Structures are given as C-alpha cells and as structure tokens.
Amino acid sequence: MKNMVSRFKRTPQRVMPACCCMILALLLIACGGGTTSTLTPAPTPQPSPTPSPTPTPGLTLYTGKGYSISYPQGWKVTPISAGIAFSDTTGVYALIIVVNSNPYGIVDASTFANKGIESGKKTMKNLQTETLPPTTTVGGDSWVQKSISGTETSNGQSVDVHVVVISDNHPAKSANTQNFTIIYDTEKSLFATANTSYFQPMLHSFKFT
Prior knowledge:
Number of helices: 4
Distance between the termini: 26 Å
Structural class: alpha+beta
Shape: globular
Strand content: 35-45%
Largest sheet: 8 strands, antiparallel
Mean pLDDT: 81
C-alpha cells in the first residue's frame, strides 16, 4: 500500500479526488480496516467451464483479474492500486474497477459500497444522494449499488460530479471469493448521456472469468 499515493496520480485528473478516497477506503477494508462478519468456511463448489470472452461490437476487450470487460475504443487504460481505470482522453468520463481478495465473503458487498460512498463524500460539497434501485445485475450477479453527487474542486476548478459505486462478492462463499467494486462517474450534467452511451454498455459487457 505504500505506493498507493503515487499510483493515484495516474488516475484521471478530472475525477481524481473522490475516486482516490474511494479506492483507498476499499483497500483499507481489504487490509482489515472495515467491519467484518464471522468467517464461516463453506465447501468450495467446482467451477463450471467458462467460455472465452469475446469483444462487444464497437468496444475493445480488456481481461482483468477474474473478469473481462469491454471499453470504448480510444479510451485510456491506467493500472491503479488493486485495479484498473478506464477513461476518455479528456478524463471527463471514468470507470474504475477494484478487485480485493475476500475469502468466503467475510466482508459483505454492502460494506465495500458504503465505505466507498462515505469516503467519496469527504471531497465533495453540496452533497446529494442520488436515487437508485438497491441492486443491479452485472455479469449474472446481483450487485449492491449506491450513488451520490456533489461539487468537487480539482486543480483550482470546481465541477458538479455524479458518482455510482456498485459492489459484489464473487463467487459468493468460497476460499477464492473476491470483492469486485466498480466506480463510475462524470460531470453531473453529462451523466445521463454518458450512462447510456458508455457506462451501461461497459457494464453489460462485464463477465466473470
């Protein structure tokens, strides 16, 4: 974790403050800094054969740690602590995936999502909770989802941003369980269009491998 701050500097600049805080919170949970439930080992199911992922038309395929996802052609792919950041060339639109080992799902997905949101609030003013269904389906799993908006200041400029955090433990209860948390955000005035054009197609392409 000692290299975390330097790695954050490569996160898309327009959305860096909230995302950095969220990523840090997720890593602290993984290191034992979050509320945990009692560990109850369960038999590890035998994995079913998984077909090789194929690119979504118009998108470029990326294969990560236990998953694949397709992203818009021309976007940047930037490694960060425990994950990857996808962003357009201007840094206005960003989707970040953080993967942490979480054996047997000892930390529930809601804890990851809530910690991410609470940490993101630290960099924002004029906070609002954005209304979303409590769960969403991505990669065949049900993910917890939370959303906030507010004003961020970065490099002397203030901008209203809209952030969504979704989180899932996969597989649900096994020695190999990992927590997958996805953070996506952009300027609030652009969010609806970006969600339709970029974020949802990326989420629809997500597959566990």
